[in-house]
Amino acid sequence: MIAMQLGRASIPDGYTIINAGSPQMIAPFLYKKLDYDLFSDFVAIARLTTVQNCLVTNSGFAPNSVKSLIDLAKAKPGQINMASAGVGRKPPCRDLV
């Protein structure tokens, strides 16, 4: 967030470039207030990488599609938790992509 704030405050002369990734992309959805607007304060100039993502659940968990998971989460607000392997761990779906 600090780098994004500094990038936003920099003079738009082409000498400051931000390499934004997943944390910057999800920050607007995690924080109530940011000192920058990802979509109006910055301009994308190149895609450097792509990242494969997958959604998995315990086999005993009832939903078997994204739609049914969303429906269940809406029916039981605040009762469904999520976890992430995070950076540095191999995702469980590595053989699916």
Main sheet overview: none
Mean of pLDDT: 81
User: What structural class results from the helix and strand content?
Assistant: mainly alpha
Count all strands and give the number: 0
Q: What's the Cα radius of gyration?
A: 18 Å
Order of helices and strands: HHH
Percentage of helical residues? 25-40%
> How many structural domains does the protein architecture include?
2
Overall geometry comes to elongated
Strand content: under 5%
Report the span from N to C terminus.
31 Å
Low-confidence blocks of residues:
none
Total of DSSP H or I helical runs spanning 4+ residues: 3
List strands and helices in order, with pairings.
Blueprint: H1 2-9, H2 22-30, H3 66-75
Overview in brief:
The chain is mostly helical. It contains 3 helices and no strands.
Question: What features would you describe in this structure?
Answer:
By secondary structure, the chain is mainly alpha-helical. It folds into two domains: 1-50, no CATH class; 54-85, no CATH class. It contains three helices and no strands. The chain has helices at 2-9, 22-30, 66-75. The longest helix is centred in the last third of the chain and has 10 residues, at 66-75. The mean pLDDT is 81.
